[in-house]
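Researcher: I'd like a structural prediction for the single chain below. Treat it as a standalone chain; there are no partners to consider.
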Amino acid sequence: MPEIPLKRARLRAYVNAIADLVGERESGRSVGRELAIGILRKSLEEFKVEPFRGVRFSDDIYDKEMMSLYIVAKYILRIPVTLFGDVFVNEILLDRTSLVIRNSSEPGEVRSTVEKYLGKADEVTLSKLIRYITTEYYLDLIGEEVALRSVRNLINAFPEHSENFKRMCKFFIAVVLGSKIVSDEIRSKIDLEIRKKALAINLGLSGGAPSNEYIIEVTRIAYGNAGSLARLKASS
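Model: Treating it as a single chain, here is the predicted structure.
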């Protein structure tokens, strides 16, 4: 049997988890967030795929992965997420915020939208929003241009976090460049170096590009494709 591409296997795990959630509800059981997180974790383990994550395996990674589950349920399977009660209450607010900021370059509107739906715009809140946008991109809900515009609008709206954004956007940059590595659009370390610096500047993060090692590791976790990674590592 041919190997299933990593991203497709991860998507299957999400779909399987949602099917299990629907089954729990139809059986008359109360479906809460903790139960949903447990079902998601079990499904990822059954499909032998890691959560969609950066280099560090954080304690709350499965809670963060509820963003993926929400996007697949609402936008890929077209299931009304209200079916699950309060399970996706956090993701609904992130989704509403993302829809506004992708279409508004006016810093005041972006800022007020974040504060309206997500409350205090601190580093934790902004990091969650960037991860949500990154997940939208990874699951092909939005394209690269829209993803870049969304993050750039967010950065422009919160200049007081300009240094923090360099850290908060590492994962986003790595996922975008990772898609180019596995498609062989980026084939050498020199090309990667040029692309990552250009992407950081495009976002308004001069000097904020992650290391090549970080990008390669995130690419491995998110996309797999050992052949492309081996070729890149061997390049000069």
